[in-house]
Amino acid sequence: MKKDSIQLQITADGSHTLYVEDMDEHYHSWHGAIRESQHVFVDKGLKEIAAKEVQLLEVGFGTGLNAYLTCLEASKNHRMVRYDALEKYPLPIEIFRKLNYNGQLGGDEGDCFERLSQSPWGEPTNVSAFFSIRKMQDDFLTFQPRRQWYHVIYFDAFAPEKQPEMWQEQHMRKLYDALVPGGILVTYCAKGAVKRMLRSIGYRVESLVGPPGKREMIRAIRPE
User: Fold this and answer.
1) What is the C-alpha end-to-end distance of the chain, expressed in Å?
2) Do residues 85 and 133 make contact, with C-beta atoms less than 8 angstroms apart?
3) Structural domains in the chain (count)
C-alpha cells in the first residue's frame, strides 16, 4: 500500500477515516467511523463477553480506532483487556497524529490513543490500568494464533471483494480454533456466502442489525 495513495477524510459523524486510492476503499463506513466501530466491535462483541479479564484479537489494526474504543470501554468498566492487534501494513506515525479521535472521544483517558498508536510493535505495552496492547506486524495468511485463547476476535479486514484471500475458509477456521468455547467473532460483513462458510466450520452465526448505512452485520460464536 503506497503512502501517497492514502487520503484523510471526514465521515458523517465528524470522525476521520482513510481512503485508499489504490484499492478504492475506505477504512471505515462513510456514515460514521466511530459509530461503525462502536456498534460492530464494542457493542456487539466486547460487551457480550462476561469474562472479568478479556483476551482479544484484532485482525486489521488500521487507524487504531477499534483499539481506542476498547481501551475507553475497559477503563470505564474497570475490566482488564489484553489486546493483540495484527497489521501487515502499519500506517506511518504522521497519519496517526492527524486523526481526530482524541478530539471526538477524549476524556479521562484522552491520551490513550496517543499511547497505543505510538507503542512499539512486537512488545506488550500497558496503555492504561485496564488495557494492554501487543501490536504485531504480521501477515494474517501465515499467522498462527494460540488455540482456545481469545474471548473476542474483531475481524476488520477489507471487504471480501477487495481482499478475498483474507476470507478463505482455512483462515476463518484457524480463528474458530483460536476462540475459547463461547467466544465471539464480529465483523461488519454480512454476505450470505460468508455466513454459509462460517456455519460450515461450526460457528453459530447471528445476523444482527448493522451500523448506520448498513442493514446487517455478522456475529459468529464458537459453541460451548
Assistant:
1) 39
2) yes
3) 1
Range of the domain at 187: 32-221
Phi, psi of 67 (to 5 degrees): -65, -40
Strands (E), 60-104: 80-86
1 falls within a domain: no
pLDDT digits (tens, 9 = 90+) for 201-223: 999 999 999 999 999 999 999 99
CB 183 within 8 A of CB 31: no
d(CA 189, CA 106): 28
The CATH number covering residue 205 comes to 3.40.50.150
Number of CB atoms found within 10 A of residue 161's CB: 9
DSSP state of 27: S
**Is the residue at 7 inside a domain?**
no
Q: What is the pTM of this model?
A: 0.95
Residue 23 lies in a domain: no
13-20 LR contacts (CB < 8 Å, sep 24+): 13/104, 14/100, 14/104, 15/65, 15/100, 15/101, 15/104, 16/63, 16/98, 16/99, 16/100, 16/101, 17/63, 18/62, 18/63, 18/91, 18/95
> All 3 cell numbers of residue 98?
492527524
Q: DSSP assignment, residue 132?
A: E
The whole-angstrom separation of Cα 46 and Cα 6 is 29
**Domain annotation covers residue 163:** yes
| pLDDT tens for each residue of 129-163 | 999 999 999 999 999 999 999 999 999 999 999 99
The Cα 210–Cα 25 span in angstroms is 19
Which residue, chain included where needed, has cell 479521562? Answer: 108
